[in-house]
Design a protein that fits this description.
- The protein is built from twelve helices and no strands.
- By secondary structure, it is mainly α.
- The chain folds into two domains: 35 residues, no CATH class; 206 residues, no CATH class.
- Helix 4 runs antiparallel to helix 5, helix 5 crosses helix 9 and helix 9 packs across helix 10.
- 27% of the residues are buried.
Length: 264
């Protein structure tokens, strides 16, 4: 108490002094940062490797949690699928004896774990989209709630996107590739708005064409960096992947391809 009175008498701000004892008030003190606050996304700023690296490093616990979920769900899906296939093969002397109905049943049974693994995989993009929309990175304890908030919407969104890409590839390959490239935009609309899924898909595809050449180039360079990190040593992908997703979200906001908190 005496220190507080002394500080006030010497010209210190009472709010600032109290803030030193409470993290909730640290924001009131010049030069003192709240450890609970994430690095602002600053979506209107031009994207840079330095910027997204700083964001990944500053929110390392969040991206580590996402990687943990990706690896765990992927492992569960792999083990479950291999086990079911093994049980099918044990009951058949050759691959020719495996009935189509059995293969379909195998696919249906393994579908839940496959969906779970894919939901976890999309979290890296979804978290980046939410980060650049709200200017706040989700904390580790909030990651799972991103998916559980509207699970049916996200599952259906995945099926719709897969169908759209598949149809595009069948038509002439290039439309399918372009649709696949629109994924960051599509994820943005699905996870940050309440628009129906067809509208999300349409808006994502149209937004990409606002600056198609630049968008394709940035997407290509991001894919190249990701492939390079996998080929070189694999481990760099743990950092390169989230950096790429953050860079893409920063890019689409900076270019005005999406509007923050767009509702219609």
């Amino acid at each position: 108490m005496s220190a507080l009175i002394k500080g006030t008498q010497e010209g210190g701000s009472p709010a600032c002094l109290q803030g030193r004892f409470s993290s909730a008030l640290l924001v009131n003190c010049p030069g003192v940062e709240d450890p609970g606050m994430s690095i602002p996304a600053n979506a209107t700023e031009a994207p840079s490797i330095t910027k997204v690296w700083r964001q990944v490093k500053g929110n390392a616990s969040t991206f580590t949690t996402i990687w943990g979920l990706i690896l765990i769900t992927g492992l569960i899906n792999s083990i479950f699928s291999e086990l079911f296939h093994y049980l099918i093969n044990v009951g058949a002397d050759s691959a020719a004896e495996i009935l189509p109905s059995t293969l379909i049943a195998s696919w249906v049974v393994s579908l839940p774990t496959a969906i779970l693994a894919n939901l976890a995989a999309i979290l890296m993009t979804a978290t980046s989209a939410i980060y650049y929309t709200t200017d706040r990175c989700s904390k580790p304890g909030e990651i799972v709630s991103i998916i559980t908030r509207k699970p049916l919407r996200y599952v259906l969104a995945g099926f719709l996107f897969s169908i759209a890409v598949g149809i595009g590839l069948l038509l002439c390959i290039i439309p399918g590739i372009l649709m696949a490239l629109a994924q960051p935009l599509y994820v943005y609309y699905v996870f940050t708005t309440d628009l129906d899924l067809m509208t999300c898909l349409s808006k994502a595809f149209k937004a990409m064409f606002q600056d198609l050449g630049s968008y394709v180039l940035v997407s290509f360079l991001r894919s190249l960096a990701l492939a390079g990190s996998i080929i070189l040593c694999v481990f760099p992908v743990l950092v390169v992947y989230p950096m790429g997703e953050l860079y893409m979200q920063n890019y689409i906001h900076h270019k005005g391809l999406v509007r923050a908190r767009e509702l219609a």
